[in-house]
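Teaching note: in complex prediction, the entire set of molecules is handled at once rather than each chain in isolation. The prompt given to students was simply: 'Predict the structure of this complex.' The entities are:
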Amino acid sequence: MRDERYAKLADVLVNYSVEVQKGDLVEIGGAPLAEPLITEVYRAALKAGGHPFMRLHIPAAIEIFYREAKQHQLKFVSPIAEFENENVDKVVSIWADENTKALTSVDPKRQAVRSSATQRLFLRFMEREAEGELKWVGTQFPCNASAQDAEMSLDEYEDFVLEACLVHLKDPIAAWKKVHNKQEKICKVLNKRKKIRVVTEGTDLTFLCQGRKWINCDGKANMPDGEIFTGPIEDSVEGTIAFSFPACYMGREVHGVRLTFKKGKVVKAHADKGKDFLLAMLDSDEGARRVGEFAIGTNYSVQRFTKNTLFDEKIGGTIHMAVGASIPESLGKNQSGVHWDMVTDMRDGGVIYADGKVIYRDGKFVLK
Amino acid sequence: MIEGFAKLLVQYCLDVQKGDLVRVGSSPAASPLVKEVYREALKAGGHPYLRLGLPGIAEIFFGTAGKHQLSHVNPIDIHEIERVDKIINIRAAVNKKALTNVDPKRQQTANRAMRDYREIYMRRSASKELEWCSTLFPTNASAQDAEMSLNEYEDFVFRACMLHRKDPVAAWRGVHRKQAKACRRLGECSTLRIVREETDITMKVAGRKWINSDGRRNMPSGEVFTGPIEDSVEGTIAFSFPAVWGGREVHGVRLTFKRGKVVKASAQKGEDFLHAVLDTDQGARFLGEVAVGTNYNIQRFTKNILFDEKIGGTVHVAVGASYPESGGKNTSGIHWDMITDMREGGKIYGDGKVIYKDGQFVIE
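The expected output is the structure of the full assembly:
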């Protein structure tokens, strides 16, 4: 049975987010569970004149890989994957887990070995993206595992996801263009500022962003979207930040994370739960202890924390920071196999200063 | 059973070695087997990766694609086929008739485009740079075609693969030895004549090689085949079973050959489709293969070529591409196997002598 809402979402992904053109090689990545959306994306990409192909995985195989692969296998990068990485024009990644905790008990050191082995691919991917050779969008297919994490029924969660993507509106593409215009104004102002200070309970953090670029996340690379971000000057981050929400990465949750920075580097890392995993990730390579991204979430259709970064980092009224790789288009220079976003709620008393002036208070921008 | 199946595929069929790039191609319906094959390939030191399709996608492709899309070959696929070491294809249909109403000309266009791809595939597999194996995971769709319950069908598939035997790998090695004898005898013949009701066809096979299909490339297997000398085929062959291609069935096919080429093709049902496929390209009217099925664990026609062409006591020929390792030289975008039952009165003559009768080889 076709669900027209997925056809509508596919239209946004294909014709707005990655703008499939005639002749594009379009990779659709996902798990079989996302079949209704994968099928519609395939159809839409074909209609747009592209050459869609699928890259599906089954979650059980990923688990087997992390548990049973020998070192030479963990470190292996397939020449086929490399070629694909170099030649694909558009990528639509559709996340759909059967169990978001399937990898919880996997040895984090093995995951870190894998991350650093594939870092080269990841960097090249981002480089091609920054150069405009490649467009990528990631989205979430509503499934029971994610609904469970979000503490919702599947029905409720479907509504949550599709509303966050603005698919409940008559013309979602027009709505995303509006988001773009609004955020563009904010980016323009911030691009002229040098120093940012973020203050909320347990948090007082400063960094420099002079010469870096604020990027407008308007539904092109993530669906849903709604954030602006930059790459702080790597050695300028100072102070402490406490994250209000559990930090989720590779199927794990780390609770009560608090990071203290000196000259840009994490010198103290605390967690109430999951500290081993946190430290293993921070130690996976040189860049993993540095900040690759600082961002402000602006999607006020997303109000709840659902243990899914795609949505959580967009919550209107939050900020987030990622340890690890910068996104090159922000002109950030940090390199790492890790990119781990962690989110802090600003809605209750949070303030952001730019060059000493308040620009954001209680979860909202206060720019003229 | 699934674990034993995976072991047979990885250790015997593909013989995965440390460092091998192993493509596991299938669809989600076969997840239980895909997962175990992935695990076994990893254990063998290979680098397995999945290539899963989804039911419904092919239909959308053939229904929606424009001309430039139908004839497009993805450069990533070409790169992959140049480099991959082992390929396992695990078929797992959920609807065997999903493509029945697709325009055969559109399928033909797509098929023609895949020619280069297929040629690389065949060249690399002939030179043993690439090992591949096709098998099937039992699903209700295939069971339905076979007119069995899923339970019966699982049993049928597992027996055909000899997974009911204590040591399936040893059993397949036994098949190899037995077939080696048949290949030797056939290799001594320069002309073959196949005779049965409504069928009398001759072909030259001198200088061509008989291949022992011992379960490495097809699981199950059990057949010996070669590529006849392309312009030597003369006479008529009637096929006892429906010929199935691209999800379509053509019933009562009869082909008449002159100087190797199909000059007359008739069918009781699906004749238009038969003609369309035979017109795919130059090579589609010539034989790429002649073969004898030897798997006596398979007795029934189940509308699935993987099993049907192996039925102990049948002969099949394929129009279209030859397998280069048999010495065959025919090239085409298609390779369509069609089967004739020899169990009742069928005979094969090798240089005038009976070497096969009523479904069995009669060689010392």
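Point out the following to students. The domain at 4-164 of chain A is CATH 3.40.1830.10 (Thermophilic metalloprotease-like). Chain A has a mean pLDDT of 95.
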